[in-house]
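Why do we bother with a discrete structure alphabet at all? Because it lets us treat a fold like text: something you can write down, compare, and reason about line by line. To make this less abstract, here is a complete entry for tRNA-2-methylthio-N(6)-dimethylallyladenosine synthase. Read it the way you would read a sentence in a foreign language you are learning: slowly, and without expecting to understand everything at once.
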Amino acid sequence: MENLIHQLREGRLKKHAMEEGRGLVFGTHRSPAAECAPFDIAKLTEQYQVGQKVSGQPYRYLIRTYGCQMNEHDTEVMAGMLQTMGYEPASDVESADFILFNTCAVRENAEDKVFGEIGRLRPLKQRNPELVLGLCGCMAQEKGVQKLVQDKFPWVDLVFGTHNLHRLPQLLTEARQSQETVLEVWDYAPQTMENLPKVRAQGTRAWVNIQYGCNKFCTYCIVPYTRGAERSRLPEDILDEIRNLIADGYRDITLLGQNVNDYGVDLGNMTFAQLLRQVNSLEGIDRIRFTTSNPWNFTQELIDAIAESEHVVEHIHLPVQSGNNRILKRMNRSHTREAYLHLVQRIRDKIPGVSLTTDIIVGFPGETEEEFQDTLKLVEEVRFDNAFTFIYSARENTPAATFEDTVTLAEKKARLKRLNDMQYSISREKQEQYVGQELDVLVEGPSKTNPDVLAGRTRKNQLVLFAGTSALVGQHVKVRVTEPQTWLLKGEIVSHRGEESA
Ligand code: SAM
Ligand code: SF4
């Protein structure tokens, strides 16, 4: 298979950095600002209406989403386009006329799940010849996946990638008329698209993309290949979108990007810290979150902006990946263990009580027992509030996939368990410190398991359950913690009050 890594790196090197004489540092190079194009909703509304079925029923769609918040948000955009075309949501696969898999390629098991599902849907396709099956997202960017669909899953009608998601209406219309699989995957994003229609989840929380792509090229990670180079949206577009969200009643806004602290580097006249301050000063803004930040470029300017912006919450997700310098270097992470610990100290000095969460990979190729123990020691030292932990999964065409891997799967699983056991007990201890405390909770809605119980979040993103009426949804309440658990806090409502730091 063609080596996308070389293709991408060389392409970007020649075009942007080398020609401008800026030189290049591996993994930290910059691409120029992406051009921004408005999306034509009027054209979409006129040209790609789906109409009704002969039975008079509407056409219905179902999107199965895998992976990160970015994918969840892409699904909101695609749902927006589909509903503008006249599609309505389906409650299950049987009643859907269009089933779309919005996929993740970060780890192999996500891919296995998707193909398992597509296999199971084949009989449905035989029963309903009008049914259109589609695959998009990060997996669709992989040449190997495109070939697999063509060779083994020809009943998939439509494949498109992350860079041409806005072409869904045209492509779906084509797929409905075609006997063959319609496949359109762009290798890069020529523009960032604005004004895309969105159907957001109801509630208090909303995601806002501030940046697409990633320039870091961590050796294990497929994201720079599936999502392309970093592109920042213009601040005025981001601020406009947030103003509209505030007007629509959303209270808790998460700014999304693979390296949010790199926001604006390509624009040249804006930093993420400046953007945060601008969002913070919007009329009516309540809570501001952001994810994911990278330890490498987490500046003092950014720490100060978080500390000084009252609406920016005291929660930072700061993926460390490993506690060992040799492994970090082989991962092409741009931080060392010491730099990470120093950063944590600087953050804690300036933002007392800040909640820190992280991502950790165990069993990276060649990771020794001692090197893994460095990760355990780092976890013990930092005492994260929570950690997302993963067994290393080799991704085709990434550099680490060629590294010799001597660690057995059984050993990797055992390391994951040791790490999780340690983290769970730290998380539990941290949660127990909240007994008796009164926390500021933004009420999100009824709990998933009991309609008489409300669920809400603290500024630090802790899930809190307590008895209350649905009239409180969207409001801030004070809840006294009575029963802390590892993943949630149970409590009783004390009063309805304005926002105070939890
Ligand atoms: N941009 C974010 C960062 O660098 O912190 C992370 C984005 S990535 C989609 C989410 C997490 O998946 C990573 O932080 C990493 O822990 C994990 N991950 C990525 N590639 C992986 C792989 N090949 N095997 C196992 N875990 C992986
Ligand atoms: Fe980029 Fe994060 Fe993947 Fe590293 S782990 S390449 S920073 S998306």
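What the structure line is telling us, in plain words: The chain has 15 helices and 21 strands. The radius of gyration is 23 Å.
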